[in-house]
């Protein structure tokens, strides 16, 4: 029966107990193992699995996907449901066994190939993160039924399969695009520098023209103010002199008033009227000078400003035209490069598709032809087997039947008939007597030879048309 024993699991272990008093499996870290109970230690530490997965994209382009997965039993602290699945289905295989690795590899390869077949190579290459996440989710969904959990998944960079250098060509394409973009950036920077220099020159000339105009305006303004002061001083002097003269005249008038009476009053009014006219003339002259100075200033300012604006507009238009021309040249070069790349890619895709279709059609025709030959051979073998069985495995009877059925005897008879067709044999009978007077046996042999020559020579003449030589004799 045995004795109870107290078993304690290690930090990375769990105890799976089955047997007496346990319906299925219980998991413990420590337990009294009773008689008729079995305790198995489960190693729950995760293990790294490295794979080189080969898959094919939607364009039927193969690629290699290196991946490293860290996978182990999922430890659920509440009810250990996943760990029970692991103990029931997978725990029998040891840590050095390839059972779990083969299981994980089969799941990962299946999900990766299905997912890759629904995506193009460009989508897989650009969306590596999304592709990795989808592979992770789908593989985890399949591994849940075995109680396994993916602790970490690292999908490395995609690698070309020998004979299908897609990523190397894509890298060359990216390098060419980067080089073309760098050339465009250099051209744009150079263009901006030249435009900036032209703009700075225009701004400098514009500011210089503005300063010159303002200087001229100030100078003209100061000249006008100086003339105004001179006129004012001259006018005041004249007014003062006139006032002195008026005072003198007034004094004289006062002296003469007593003498002239009304004559003095009239003279004084006349003098005042003359002075008023003179003052008014001076004021009007001052206004005229002010207007002239203002008109000259405005005219000069307008001329300088219009000249500066015209030069600035001309420089801006030239810079814009040069910028537009260089932009169009760069766009034309870029468009031509893109069209050449697109044409090369389309030609390569069409040639590859044509070759692939031709190979597929040839393969399909060969397969169908082989299937037809195999089917005919199987039918003939079955037919010959049934006939051989009927004739009690007599191969000679089977041969005679096949020759009769296929008309072989008839063909042989026809060939023999064609061989003798047209022949007209002639039979000549020569008799040389009974040979009683020929002497001995030696003479009989010579006589027999001479009797054989005439029919032989006649037969040769009839069959070939050749005459015997004259020394031998002539035939009738």
What features would you describe in this structure?
This is Flotillin-like. Belongs to the band 7/mec-2 family. Flotillin subfamily. InterPro entries: Band_7, Band_7/SPFH_dom_sf, Flotillin_fam. The chain is of the alpha+beta class. The chain has nine helices and nine strands. Strands 6, 7, 8 and 9 form a four-stranded antiparallel β-sheet that branches. Strands 3-2-5 form a three-stranded antiparallel β-sheet, covered by helices on one side. Helix 5 (166-260) runs antiparallel to helix 6. It is elongated and about 225 Å long. The chain starts with a strand and ends in a 12-residue tail after the last helix.
Quickly list its features.
single chain, four-stranded antiparallel sheet, membrane, 68% helix, 476 residues, Band_7, alpha+beta, three-stranded antiparallel sheet, 12% strand
Q: Could you state the order of secondary-structure elements as H and E?
A: EEEEEEEHHHHEEHHHHH
Give the mean pLDDT.
77
Structural class: alpha+beta
Number of helices: 9
What portion of residues belong to β-strands? Answer: 5-15%
Output the radius of gyration.
64 Å
Beta strand count = 9
Q: Helical residue percent?
A: 55-70%
Low-confidence stretches: none
Largest sheet: 4 strands, antiparallel
Shape: elongated
Distance from first to last alpha carbon: 131 Å
Membrane topology: Lipid-anchor
InterPro entries: Band_7, Band_7/SPFH_dom_sf, Flotillin_fam
Domain Band: 10-190
Family: Belongs to the band 7/mec-2 family. Flotillin subfamily.
């Amino acid at each position: 029966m045995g004795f109870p024993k107290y078993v304690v699991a290690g930090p990375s272990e769990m105890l799976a107990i089955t047997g007496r008093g346990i319906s299925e499996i219980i998991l413990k870290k420590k337990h009294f193992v009773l008689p008729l109970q079995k305790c198995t230690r489960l190693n729950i530490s995760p293990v790294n699995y490295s794979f080189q997965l080969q898959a094919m994209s939607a364009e039927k382009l193969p690629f290699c996907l290196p991946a490293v997965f860290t996978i182990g039993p999922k430890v659920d602290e509440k009810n250990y449901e996943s760990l029970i699945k692991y103990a029931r289905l997978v725990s029998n295989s040891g840590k050095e066994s390839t059972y779990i690795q083969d299981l994980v590899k089969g799941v990962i390869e299946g999900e990766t190939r299905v997912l890759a077949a629904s995506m193009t190579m460009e989508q897989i290459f650009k969306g590596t993160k999304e592709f990795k996440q989808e592979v992770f989710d789908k593989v985890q969904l399949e591994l849940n039924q075995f109680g396994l959990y993916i602790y970490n998944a690292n999908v490395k960079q995609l690698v070309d399969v020998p004979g299908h250098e897609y990523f190397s060509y894509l890298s060359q394409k990216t390098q060419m695009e980067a080089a073309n973009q760098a050339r465009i950036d250099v051209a744009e920077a150079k263009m901006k520098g030249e435009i900036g220099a032209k703009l700075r020159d225009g701004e400098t000339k514009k500011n210089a023209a503005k300063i010159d105009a303002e200087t001229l305006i100030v100078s003209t303004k100061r000249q006008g103010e100086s003339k105004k002061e001179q006129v004012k001083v001259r006018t005041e002097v004249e007014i003062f002199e006139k006032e002195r003269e008026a005072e003198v005249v007034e004094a004289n008038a006062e002296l003469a008033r007593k003498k002239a009476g009304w004559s003095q009053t009239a003279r004084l009014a006349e003098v005042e009227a003359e002075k008023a006219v003179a003052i008014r003339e001076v004021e009007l002259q001052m206004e005229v000078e002010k207007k002239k100075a203002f008109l000259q200033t405005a005219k000069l300012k307008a001329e300088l400003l219009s000249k500066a604006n015209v030069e600035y507009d001309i420089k801006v238009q030239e810079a814009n035209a040069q910028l537009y021309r260089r932009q169009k040249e760069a766009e034309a070069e870029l468009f031509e490069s893109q069209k050449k790349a697109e044409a090369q890619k389309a030609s390569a895709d069409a040639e590859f598709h044509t070759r692939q279709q031709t190979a597929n059609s040839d393969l399909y025709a060969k397969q169908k032809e082989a299937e037809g030959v195999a089917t005919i051979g199987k039918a003939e073998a079955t037919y010959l087997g049934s006939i051989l069985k009927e004739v009690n495995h007599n191969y000679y009877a089977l041969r005679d039947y096949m020759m009769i059925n296929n008309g072989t005897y008839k063909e042989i008879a026809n060939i023999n008939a064609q061989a003798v067709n047209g022949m007209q044999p002639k039979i000549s009978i020569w008799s040389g007597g009974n040979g009683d007077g020929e002497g001995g046996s030696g003479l009989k042999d010579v006589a027999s030879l001479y009797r054989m020559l005439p029919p032989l020579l006649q037969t040769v003449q009839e069959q070939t048309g050749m005459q015997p030589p004259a020394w031998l004799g002539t035939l009738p």
